[in-house]
Amino acid sequence: MIEASFGAGVPGCMHGDGSPDGAKLVVRFTTPGEVPYQDSPFAFNVWVKGIELWDFKTRDDYLAALRELRPNIYKFGELIEDVTTHPATKRTVESHALNYDAANDPELADMYTATSIFTGERILRWNSMMQSSDDLITNMKIKRQNFRRTGSCTGAVCVGWNAQNVLWAVTQEMDEEFGTDYQQRLKNWILSAQSKGLAVTGALTDAKGDRSLKPSQQLDPDTNLRVVKVRDDGIVIHGAKVMIAGTAASQEIFLLPGGTYGEADQDYALACVVPRDIEGLTIVEATHPSDRRELEATADVEVPDTGVTQAYLLFEDVFVPKERVFMCKEYEYTAKFIQYFTANYRACIGACVSGQGDVMIGAAILMARANGLSTSTFMSKLVDMSTKNQTTYGLGIGACAMGTRHPSGSWFADPLTAHTNKVLVATLPYEVKRLAQEIGGGIVETGCMPSYKDFTNPEYGHLLQKYLKAGACSAESRFKAARLAEWLTVGAGIPGCMHGGGSPDGAKLVVRFTTPMEEYANYARKIMNIEEEVPEPQKRK
Ligand SMILES: Cc1cc2nc3c(=O)[nH]c(=O)nc-3n(C[C@H](O)[C@H](O)[C@H](O)COP(=O)(O)OP(=O)(O)OC[C@H]3O[C@@H](n4cnc5c(N)ncnc54)[C@H](O)[C@@H]3O)c2cc1C
């Protein structure tokens, strides 16, 4: 429920519109108190209090929902009772809460909300179906916007969103072949996710064990999450998923195939969605460089209010009711799942690294100035940083634009372009980080600077402040800018662009197999009128 006002007017020269639709009545919603058409003699303005324009979950609803979950997350050996206030998790929760703020902010609502294809109601964008290139590109815009506002990754408004769209297509294919009802189950779950405004993370990565062996060949069969029992009312699962981003900020978790499996590995072919606090699930948060700073009393100065986490999920005979199961041993469809999932994910991740790169440019500019140097001193480096950011963003958008619609309606990015993007995502941001460090100096490179506790020490703090002062701003601002640049480039803010979303060699394999090499050889042959075939050399025996 919000306070609102609206005005109606006849557009014409009075509104500077010049539209030939001069007689059309337009209605414009505004913030309370704003007069939409005060310059029109034909206009009327009405203020309405208590009109229900939308009913998106707010930050408070979201935080309250997280607090209701059973505590099952550990970090540094301690059970976290309340993820919204514990220093190890409250920053990733804050990053996600900003999404709920954005959905309720008239300036950002268009981007952060969408129309449900099922109910026609306005819903949170990250619970929506992506059925056009525009939908996928908006996903990218949100990612860049989120990184700009938080500096890091918001996995629980990202991976689960992609998962539901990918499964929408895969369940349709499975239902057609096997006569299952997976898509209807998924639809029921999506409808409930839309009405509850859930934050949902996604877990593909298994513990894996020996990388040269398939899951069923591992000495310990639990190294990959598997179905240990199929019951009439659901399945029992056992094993682990690891490095799952945004788990502490999520209400539910999609569990998804971690690879492409054959018949021998059918027990590992599973997809389902579970509450984050489901019985039998223990979660242990990973530690990052410098993240113990988050626990210190000086954290508010040394660390942003936002942040990122990745978790290890340990499943010990967890029962998942069948309404929440969308793949159970249909190993033939794991390849499809991975194909669709990685196409969209690896297109969109270009926006993540570009958004973080934008903040790195900002931090580098602050550092230059705080050091007493002008931005122009480093302009060529800053331009290099910007072109790298824009490369992964633009390539991702290109992959989305060149995508295709699956018969189910889901939109999938062009694989060759998306996987090419992943290869660049695994390389270009490191150069952006390097440049941020080069511009910032040693206090950025390794955070080579005393702690804030020392900085404010009553005995020698004033000396540190005296010697840390450089440019026109205070020593404290220079300290904070340096900590931010450190956090972004070698510290706890690093979201993982090398392996996050899958390792680059896997992406290169897709590039290799989707690049029509023979077709390209023929272009070259024809341009030079080479009539004969130029065959591959015979393999020597
Ligand atoms: C910050 C971060 C966030 C993440 N968030 C998520 C998340 O939200 N959800 C999720 O599901 N996962 C997540 N991951 C996990 C990520 O998807 C994996 O790290 C990635 O798939 C690589 O797997 P791995 O780490 O086990 O590396 P490995 O598989 O051990 O790979 C290491 C290297 O070995 C190569 N390699 C592996 N196997 C073979 C083989 N058989 N033959 C030849 N070469 C091989 C790889 O190409 C790579 O170069 C995240 C990871 C990071 C770092």
What's the helix and strand layout?
Layout: E1 2-9, E2 26-30, E3 44-51, H1 59-68, E4 73-75, E5 78-80, H2 90-103, H3 109-112, E6 113-115, E7 122-124, H4 133-150, H5 159-178, H6 182-196, E8 200-203, E9 226-231, E10 234-245, E11 252-255, E12 270-275, E13 281-285, H7 299-302, E14 310-321, E15 325-328, H8 334-370, H9 379-401, E16 404-405, E17 411-412, H10 415-425, H11 428-440, H12 442-445, H13 452-455, H14 461-468, H15 475-489, H16 504-514, H17 517-527
Parallel strand pairs: 4-13, 8-11
Antiparallel strand pairs: 1-2, 1-3, 4-5, 6-7, 9-10, 10-14, 11-12, 12-15, 13-14, 16-17
Helix pairs in contact: 1-2, 4-8, 4-9, 5-6, 5-8, 8-9, 8-10, 8-11, 8-15, 9-10, 9-11, 10-16, 11-15, 14-15
Flavin-adenine dinucleotide (FAD) binds near residues 204, 212, 496, 499 and 502.
Outline:
With 541 residues, the protein is an alpha+beta fold. It has helices spanning 59-68, 90-103, 109-112, 133-150, 159-178, 182-196, 299-302, 334-370, 379-401, 415-425, 428-440, 442-445, 452-455, 461-468, 475-489, 504-514, 517-527, and strands spanning 2-9, 26-30, 44-51, 73-75, 78-80, 113-115, 122-124, 200-203, 226-231, 234-245, 252-255, 270-275, 281-285, 310-321, 325-328, 404-405, 411-412.
